[in-house]
């Protein structure tokens, strides 16, 4: 008689080769329609599952953990894990893992893409052209902000922040300033050519401010009306971190009143819903949470989440843990 294989749930559609890899070890329930399951359905499907492969959209909290006593591991296919109540998972003896590193450079590339598109008004001018408004070239048409040689501010200086700093400093000759909970060591600062400053100074000096900090209750609305008021009227703000770090209503108002020049947003409070005021202001570039979206990177993230599942359920190891529950 063969021993029963652990049952695992994959909550969203994932590359077939990653599912095949999981099926070598486990009984795998998949989500081929890629529906975002309502909470009750998620709880029902998790019954009897030893592990879940999740994306940022599934909330793993006290109530879910109480309702799913067989769960041993939740492997998030993302570096951010603000969908986890880590303390509750640790209390329930549930291991959590995330998917860091594999997305760093791709996400930093996109941070720069959004910065460039925002500063140089790429979306706004394309909409103008597509709408048939381009009747003649003009000297002062769609004047944007300088990128090369400007001051790049970075709030949150983890791996992705450092990737953006390197691109700015080495590629575009930008002066790089940053603020972070803790200061980087001297060697990393030198490599990124980045100078540590207080948050107020970062807000006041940055020509382009990129947000790359994790979402925590402390970082909720880290950029609100008061912070926007400190920024230069010519500045651009880029958010590739998480919705909720920026007060989107306050930002929409600042953009409409041109208290800052422009914003580029890949993440939103309450996404996939976008604050309606952001949809009507012209000086904002909006993208649907795609910073890590290249085939190679998303494959790498999915493989890492799957490898965490395999390592934990077959050998009791975890490659990229986010907590250390007692076993
Ligand atoms: C993911 C992300 O695409 O890794 C993260 O934290 O925000 C994105 O790269 C998304 O969360 C998928 O789970």
Helix content bin: 25-40%
Number of strands: 12
Distance between the termini: 28 Å
Structural class: alpha/beta
Mean pLDDT: 97
CATH topology of the largest domain: Rossmann fold
Please name the fourth-level CATH homologous superfamily of the largest domain.
NAD(P)-binding Rossmann-like Domain
Give the helices and strands as they follow along the chain: EHEHEHEHEHHEHEHEHEHEHEHEH
How can the largest sheet be summarized? 7 strands, parallel
Query: What count of domains describes the coordinates?
Result: 2
The CATH class name of the largest domain reads Alpha Beta
Number of helical runs? Answer: 13
SSE layout:
Blueprint: E1 7-10, H1 16-23, E2 27-29, H2 39-46, E3 51-54, H3 62-67, E4 73-76, H4 86-91, E5 95-97, H5 104-119, H6 122-130, E6 151-155, H7 159-172, E7 175-179, H8 186-192, E8 194-196, H9 199-205, E9 208-211, H10 225-230, E10 236-239, H11 248-256, E11 262-265, H12 276-280, E12 284-286, H13 295-315
Parallel strand pairs: 1-2, 1-3, 3-4, 4-5, 6-7, 6-9, 7-8, 9-10, 10-11, 11-12
Helix pairs in contact: 1-13, 5-7
2-keto-D-gluconic acid binds at residues 55-56, 77-80, 103, 291-292.
């Amino acid at each position: 008689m063969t021993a029963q294989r652990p049952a695992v749930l994959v909550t969203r559609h994932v590359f077939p080769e990653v599912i095949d890899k999981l099926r070598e070890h486990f009984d795998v329930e998949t989500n081929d329609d890629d529906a975002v399951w309502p909470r009750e359905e998620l709880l029902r499907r998790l019954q009897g599952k030893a592990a879940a492969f999740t994306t940022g959209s599934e909330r793993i909290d006290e109530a879910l953990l109480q309702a799913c006593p067989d769960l041993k591991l939740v492997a998030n296919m993302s570096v951010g894990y603000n969908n986890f109540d880590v303390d509750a998972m640790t209390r329930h003896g549930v291991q959590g893992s995330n998917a860091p590193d594999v997305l760093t450079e791709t996400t930093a590339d996109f941070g720069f893409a959004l910065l460039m598109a925002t500063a140089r008004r790429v979306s706004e001018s394309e909409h103008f052209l597509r709408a048939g408004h381009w009747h003649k070239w003009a000297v002062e048409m769609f004047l944007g902000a300088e990128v090369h040689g400007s001051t790049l501010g970075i709030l949150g200086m983890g791996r992705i922040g450092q990737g953006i700093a390197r691109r700015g400093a080495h590629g575009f000759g930008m002066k790089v300033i940053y603020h972070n909970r803790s200061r980087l060591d001297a060697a990393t600062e030198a490599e990124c050519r980045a100078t540590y400053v207080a948050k107020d100074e970062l807000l006041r000096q940055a020509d382009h401010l990129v947000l790359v900090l994790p979402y925590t209750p402390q970082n909720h609305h880290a950029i609100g009306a008061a912070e926007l008021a400190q920024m230069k009227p010519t500045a651009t703000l880029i958010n590739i971190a998480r919705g909720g770090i920026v007060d989107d209503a306050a930002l929409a108002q600042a953009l409409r009143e041109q208290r800052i020049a422009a914003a580029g947003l890949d993440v939103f409070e309450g996404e996939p819903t976008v604050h309606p005021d952001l949809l009507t202001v012209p000086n904002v570039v909006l993208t649907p949470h795609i910073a890590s979206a290249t085939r190679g990177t998303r494959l790498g993230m999915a493989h890492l989440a799957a490898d965490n599942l395999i390592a934990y359920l077959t050998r009791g190891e975890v490659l990229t843990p986010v907590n250390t529950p007692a076993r």
